[in-house]
Amino acid sequence: MIINRLDNVEINLENGHKYALRDIKNGENVIKYGNSIGHAVCDIKKGEHIHSHNMKTNLSGNLEYVYEPDFTPIEKVDTDKTFMGYVRKNGDVGIRNEVWIINTVGCVNKISKRLADLTGVKHFEHPFGCSQLGDDQKITQLILKGLINHPNAAAVLVLGLGCENNNIPVFKEVLGEYDEERVKFLNVQDVEDEIEEGVRIIEELKKYADTFKRQPVHVSKLKIGLKCGGSDGYSGISANPLVGSLSDKVISFGGSCVLSEVPEMFGAEHLLMKRCPTKELFDKTVALINNFKDYFTKHNQVIYENPSPGNKAGGITTLEEKSLGCVQKGGMSEVVDVLDYGDVLKKNGLSLLNGPGNDIVAITNLSAAGVHMILFTTGRGTPVGGPVPTIKVATNHNLAEKKKGWIDFDASPVLCGTTMDELTDRFLDYIISVASGEETANERNGYSEISIFKDGIVL
Q1: What pTM was estimated for this model as a whole?
Q2: pLDDT tens-digit map of 34-56
Q3: Cα angle: 388, vertex 165, 262; to 5 degrees
Q4: Among 145, 177, 209, where does a domain finish?
């Protein structure tokens, strides 16, 4: 399979690995997706396998970038497509009508689990909220605030201990205004029987949640997070382009998509920078990339310590190759905003979100930013799920067949003759069905968790 007429490699559809289309000299760039993915470290003959043994990355440290916009705006499309969502009192729209328990501190994790088991609501354990200082605590608070305000949660119990740094009075200052019917608080040190009191409050919140009913909502209200994990050699030719095509279509309808995983933009960031319509957005994108590189070097780590062992087993050799596949999830839409970690989605269109690629941290980050669901492409397979529906898109048919309990949608038909437009239409129908209530595999399995990015002092 030749991806681009400039490529000097082809992808073997049996294993996702690369093979030389022609002789490649020592030091010559290896081209895939029409871009360099590294250089040969020895002469490579036509037909030879190309991987870590004969190819290395070209990437190094921070780069200087020049603003050279080059994109075609996505044409807006009038559509009457709707999904069945929940319209909240403040005008926000959710695709689920759940009650969530959000802990201010890890000390109450097992209490929240007991309450969830007794009442059937969702809880999210995490080890943070105490013994943190400065910006490190603020990051925890911003992520928890984003989850509490998420429109998929009809109602929320904020569960605290009472003596933690992030105690409820302190956290309320960060949370700001809230609906007292929708959000209630419980410090477990303040009551004799925290389980009895917690159940009582949750039952009140469930009654409040029951006042909301599904109603038709225009597809322009959809907010979708874009994520990949356990990528393989097929990721950049099946699942990621499919998600990118879906992203462009949702954006053409007026919807919103969010691309994160900054370390997996390294080597492909120039493609995103070309799609910044203003110098201000370009500068923010440059800072997004270089600040994350600085985070690596501050901790004396190699910036390009990627791909993972699983990625390499699946055929990915260098970070450029991984990134050039990763950014395809963002389609071809222009960049409308650059968000910091803990920020909430503000604009319709494609936004870039600061944050790492770690699967659980990234899905938590996207959820706290306000996306309704996450499209998670994978070539190796993963059961992980976030606070919001986490749709697993298989890059290859073998995975889709082997892990039917994990996988929600199979992107492999584009490898076998199905057109991208046809599969995108099928995928959009599935996305709308999920937005209207169809459960994803992670929801059926009860796989839902969070983790928060940490880079600070713990006492």
Answers
A1: 0.95
A2: 999 999 999 999 999 999 999 99
A3: 45
A4: 209
